[in-house]
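Worked example

This section walks through a single chain of length 360. The input is the sequence exactly as stored; nothing has been trimmed or padded.
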Amino acid sequence: MNKRSVLTIAIIFGLALLSTGCPQPKTTDKVEKKDKDAKAADRPKVAFVSNNAYQFWTFAQKGAEKAAGEFDVELEFKKPQDGSVEVQQEIINTLINRGFKGIAVSPNEPKNTLSYYKTKVHSQVALVMTDNDLPDASARRCYIGTHNYRAGRGAGELVKKAYPKGGKIAIFVGLIDSTNAVERRQGVLDVLSGKDLKDMDKITATDAANFDLGNGYTLLATKVDGSDVKNCQAQAEDLLVKHPDVDCMIGLWEYNPPAMLRAVKGSANKSKPLIVAFDENPDTLKGIRNGEVVGTIVQDPYQFGYQSIKVLSSLARGKDDVLKTWPGITSNGSIFVEHQTITKDNIDAFEKKVKEILGN
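Given that input, the structure is written out below as tokens.
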């Protein structure tokens, strides 16, 4: 048999295999793949950008992921280790360049970055502020988070519960120019001053020291640590040395109370101040059980994440009227998520809920 005959037989045999022995893609398979590709192309990309990487945002991520699945969007959740403005903006710029249609942000330094969000972000993507709002509502589509002034008042009530006749207090926070920090701090101070308000009015100077609040309460100082947990602890240790008579220390951000607890435990002072906290850090909850923490004001970061992505899933698809009928939205586009006060009385039920969210 010559080479041409061998080649001819091989070709015929190969054609036979193709027509009989080797399965060809079914028409239905091609249609299903086409439908799947079309659906993927229709799925808008949205993102959530926190202002730091603390555990608080793990709850928000769980909620965001749940909403992404329910409302069929592609989600990226960013938790920058470096809680700086520069890093946060670099992340946002990259997301915009990659074609993301909507972004939820907890902005660092909202007052100083307002122009950036108003001119470079809001015009290009659907922008939602969460946990921390911008001072100009026109620079975003909506705010989703705690009514921070009223949450601050809740913390003030915890101080009054522990020290009904008055006392010396100190407040700790990461960044004092953040909207949530300003509002929480003022809520605490207004309650202790006896002001019955639903919304914030005048602001007590951030550098106020040994300030008489009335009703027997004195604000020793407001300590700002730049979102640095080690700096927070160092400042707490310094305050305990300079003011051994401090009665209560109030931490406005999640990592503050645990850092303050470590400082109090390491102090040589005979009198140990109690702590009033924000958020659900495990050390804070342990402190409540041990009687070292009066209580904590917890937000609902799971809902921050869930509701933010739910809103963005519509805005990213061009459904711009979704917020017009959103339940409970205020005239300036704020969607408030209820806070809760956790003390020894309800800590068991709360911890059970936390474990369910985290899957522990």
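What to look for: The first strand starts at residue 45 and ends at 49.
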